[in-house]
Every structure is written in structure tokens, then in C-alpha cells.
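User: quick one, fold this
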Amino acid sequence: MSVPSDGSYQGLGLDDFAKQKIELTTMELTAEREDANALQRLRDEIRLAKKGAAMLQNKAMIQNNVLAKRK
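Assistant:
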């Protein structure tokens, strides 16, 4: 049996067991993709929070320098 370039199989019969396994695998892969996307979003949020904290720290340092120069 040859496999077309798109990876499809023609004339391949699937029994109920095979269909259930394919469905289970599809569900597992979908859940893994959702978990990976959630971790990516969390990483992005943490990165933004760190960047925001650094900006606030820099702003506070600048304000302290300005106040120190006024004295």
C-alpha cells in the first residue's frame, strides 16, 4: 500500500476499536495543545509583569534622584 503525499490512506477500514483509539488520541493531543497554550499565556503574563515591575522600579529611582537633587 502506498501513502499519498498528504498522508491519507484510501480503502483502509477502521473497526470500532481503532476509531475509539483515534478519538482518544485526538482528545489527548487537543488537551496537550490547550495546556501548552495556557503555559505560553502564563509565561507571557509573567514576562509582562516583570517588565512592568522593572519600569516602576526605574520610575521610583528617577523620582528619588530628582528629590535628592532638590535638597
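User: anything notable?
Assistant: The chain has a mean pLDDT of 89.
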